[in-house]
Specification:
There is one protein chain. This protein is α/β, with parallel strands linked by helices. The chain folds into three domains: 71 residues; 148 residues, Heat Shock Protein 90; 160 residues, Rossmann fold (3-Layer(aba) Sandwich), CATH 3.40.50.2300. 44% of the residues lie in helices and 18% in strands.
């Protein structure tokens, strides 16, 4: 019992440290990736610099997944920040990355009518990556992994382990060495592994992630006959995924955005990115300053369309407290919460805390533009530029208002 207590205490310490490291690292990644994206705007496709910047973007995705794995190594884990995702694209991207430089090939059976799913894309990518890598390692001489997906409906007659409803069933089948029958009940246990150089956390993490998505994962295997994993993910109720969103295009916009973040690099980067696609931007260092700037703009008749708020500000007012005070000033305020602490409940159930949208750090430029576009246009009206609303307010006057609030 003493040994178990010591392990639990050590695990808790790791969890706290991992959370803080991931938060800081996500802020750094956000600044790096944002600047890479901006740099690509100044070079032409086909140039050597463009190719290098594109490669840097790909490496960013690897670093982003690493931060997620760091959190999932702890019992705190990372709560899913969900969005509607196309299953076909999700599986293609995950498997392609996992089989780089491998002598194993992947065969796909993915029908065109697959329903979209509401998932945290990075977390599900991690699950698929883990399973594909395991299948690859089970076939050292090469072979084929069959990756299939289909729509299914779980009814009363077969809902003993899952809620009733529509699901997308994902099947990952290999031709490898298989798993001994006695080991099958233990493969999702933390730290259980038959490999000498593995931690035994890969399948435990996969199980935890799928469970947090209200899904189900199971396995079948026979020695020397291969292994098959089945993943069931609830189908999205939001309908199909728009092609525009799936292509990850940066969406232009009109309107006025207030960005609150304690990191100067992220404030400056956000301003440059948003101004480049048509928005007017003001900046705040913490929640208190954001409230003052927001109130001055509203009183002047020139309000903000959206406020982007960092959730955690060391030594200052963060987004959670600030949005409550903003709602007292303006019950119709539209606020987007942003943080590297993706395991914070506010990031998962943002509407409960008064936010209209959410974006987890680190994020792509296209993701930020998409969240803003959706938040502004929720009323069904196209956002109107400030200059169209009040022509008498010049850019200089707006800058004076911001400086007055800061002073």
């Amino acid at each position: 019992m003493e040994q178990e207590i010591l392990i639990a205490q050590k695990y808790e310490s790791i969890s706290i440290a991992a959370g803080r490291i991931v938060h800081d690292f996500n802020n750094i990644l956000t600044a790096i990736f944002g600047n890479v994206t901006l740099a690509k705007m100044y070079v032409k496709p086909g140039e050597k610099a463009f190719e290098k910047l594109t490669q840097a973007e790909k490496e960013f995705l690897r670093a982003k997944n690493l931060t997620r794995q760091m959190l999932n190594l702890t019992d705190k884990g990372e709560l899913p920040v969900k969005k509607t995702v196309c299953v076909t694209k999700l599986l293609g991207n995950s498997s392609g990355l996992a089989l780089t430089d491998s002598n194993v090939r992947c065969e796909y059976s993915l029908p065109d009518d697959l329903l979209p799913v509401e998932v945290d894309e990075g977390q599900i990518n991690q699950v698929i990556n883990n399973l594909i890598i395991n299948a690859d390692q089970a076939m050292p001489e090469g072979g084929t992994i069959r990756l299939m997906a289909e729509n299914i409906t779980v009814g009363p007659e077969n809902s003993s382990t899952m809620k009733q409803g529509k699901y997308v069933k994902i099947t990952i089948k290999d031709e490898g060495t298989g798993i001994p029958k006695g080991d099958l009940p233990k493969i999702f246990d933390p730290y259980f592994t038959t490999k000498t150089k593995e931690s035994g956390l890969g399948l435990a993490t996969a199980y935890s992630i799928i469970k947090k998505h209200d899904g189900y994962i199971t396995v079948e295997s026979e020695l020397d006959a291969g292994t098959t994993f089945y993943i069931y993910l609830p189908a999205s109720e939001n309908g199909s995924v728009s092609q525009k969103d799936e292509e990850g295009k940066t969406l232009g916009g009109k309107g006025k955005i207030l960005v609150m973040d304690d990191e100067k690099a992220i404030r400056d980067l956000s301003a440059e990115m948003l101004e480049s696609i048509g928005y007017e931007v003001a900046l705040a260092r913490d929640g208190a300053e954001a409230i003052e700037i927001y109130k001055l703009a509203k009183d002047s008749g020139n309000p903000f369309n959206v406020v982007i708020m960092d959730l955690t500000v060391p030594g200052g007012m963060g987004g959670r407290e600030a949005v409550e005070k903003l709602r007292e000033i303006d019950p119709g305020v539209k606020a987007v919460v942003s943080s590297g602490y993706t395991n914070d409940p506010v990031m998962v159930d943002f509407k409960k805390y008064g936010f209209s949208g959410v974006i987890a750090k680190p994020y792509k430029f296209a993701e930020l533009s998409e969240v803003l576009h959706k938040t502004i246009t929720k009323t069904g009206k196209h956002p109107v530029s400030i200059s169209e609303l009040i022509p008498s307010h010049s850019a200089k006057q707006m800058a004076d208002i911001q400086r007055e609030a800061i002073n």
